[in-house]
User: Fold this.
Amino acid sequence: MKLRWGLIGCGDIARKRIAPALRDSSVCELIAISRAQSHLAESFAKEFGARRWYASWQDLLLDDEIDAVYVATPVHLHAEQTIAAAAAGKHVLCEKPMALNASECERMIVACRANGIKLGIAYYRHFYPAIRRIKAIVDSGEIGTPVMAQINAFEWFEPQVDNPRAWLLNKNIAGGGPMFDFGCHRIEVLLHLFGPITQVKGLMANVLFNREVEDTAAALFRFESGTCGTLTVSHAIHEPHDTLEIFGSKGSIHVPKLNEGTLRIIAGNAERTEAHPPAANLHQPLIEDFVAAVLNDREPAVSGESGKTVALIEEAIYAKQS
Assistant:
């Protein structure tokens, strides 16, 4: 049995990962796409094997052949489109961040629950083999009690006005800067590894650019377990970083590039390196899990509640500034 999909939004991430994942999956069938740039909709649909294309996402939701939709639009549209999809009886896998705020997330959850709809959020790093392995090492006690986790995520981002991703600098559309855009991914990873966060402190800055959103941010966390964590993100640093380090009472785990999956583990007097690379298409495991959730009537591994929890932490980071 296959899940029949509609894709709402055909931007950069949809072209690179989402549409190929839907096309190539043995349990998915891409039925239709909708694209605001209607003159490009037909070519996108034909490129990825979709049968139909719509200029309006509202029209796509009227397509009775579609079982589920992937919402791949800018953040400010997520709530409206998810709630409408739920009302139309379509299961929803929504891009991250889930919505502009936790209140919108709650409305999405309520709408999906009321209509018997599965709701998943695209925090695909949850499915990285490296994250699964790190969690197993931490839970085993090999590095002792986790004391401190540190993440650095830096991406230079200075788009021109006509850049299709320039909307990320508009606070009303994007919700925030790098902490909102890709910091949310790392928050989900930290929650997955260490459990609930009970204390949050945040710092926002425009170090280099004069923008509506921050170009650099930092957050300090304390987890219910007692572990502490830091997350630093930036659009103003040229040297890219995607690091994760965990320091425990008996050892440590070092990940120089999370997207590559190489781990250096130090425990006692021993040190080793392990390789746990992600899937060739980073979105494939996310989509496969969501299909399984629909077909087996279970919650997706990264549910609407997961997305709302991240949103609540984001709100605390942005609000609690000294």
Q: What stands out?
A: The radius of gyration is 20 Å. Residues 3-123+283-301 form a domain with the Rossmann fold fold (CATH 3.40.50.720). The first strand starts at residue 3 and ends at 8. The first helix runs from residue 12 to 24.
